[in-house]
């Protein structure tokens, strides 16, 4: 099993920045990739960004491309999401997730951290 704990959310004005962190523990050798997903009130959870645990290759949702950057520090077992030029529509609860090498989708989830962007 893999355990995930997010931190770094908060309230920020539009145009501001936040950095989310996800501390990863447990069977980290079994991780294929890490991701950030978000869910706004009344909406379905949506993909934000992902990073390969081994190669560091990344991919992003179109809505955050060029504003958000996902990165990982394998030595610290931590994944980050740097969010710049935040918009009110980025307001959501952000979840860290892990997909294992079994490639069955997102297997493990954190508890989430709230990001609120005021206009």
> What composes the largest sheet?
7 strands, mixed
Number of helices: 0
Query: What is the mean predicted local confidence, pLDDT?
Result: 97
What is the 3D shape? globular
Q: Structural class, from helix and strand content?
A: mainly beta
Helix content percent band: under 10%
Alpha-carbon distance between the two ends: 40 Å
The arrangement of helices and strands along the chain is: EEEEEEEEEEE
Over all CA atoms, what is the radius of gyration?
Answer: 13 Å
**Strand elements, count:** 11
Q: How much beta, percentage-wise?
A: over 45%
Flag low-confidence runs. Answer: none
Question: What oligomeric arrangement do these chains adopt?
Answer: single chain
Give an account of the 3D structure.
- With 119 residues, this protein is an all-beta fold.
- The chain has no helices and eleven strands.
- Strands 2, 4, 5, 6, 9, 10 and 11 form a seven-stranded mixed β-sheet that branches.
- It is globular.
- The mean pLDDT is 97.
């Amino acid at each position: 099993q893999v355990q995930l704990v997010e931190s770094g959310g908060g309230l920020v004005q539009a145009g501001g920045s936040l950095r989310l962190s996800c501390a990863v523990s447990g069977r980290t050798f079994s991780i294929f990739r890490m991701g950030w997903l978000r869910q706004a009130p009344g909406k379905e959870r949506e993909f934000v960004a992902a990073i390969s645990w081994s190669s560091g290759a990344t991919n992003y949702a179109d809505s955050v491309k060029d504003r958000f950057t996902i990165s990982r520090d394998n030595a610290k077992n931590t994944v980050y999401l740097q969010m710049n030029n935040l918009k009110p529509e980025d307001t959501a609860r952000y979840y860290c997730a892990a997909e294992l090498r079994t490639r069955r989708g997102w297997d493990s989830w954190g508890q989430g951290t709230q990001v609120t962007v005021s206009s």
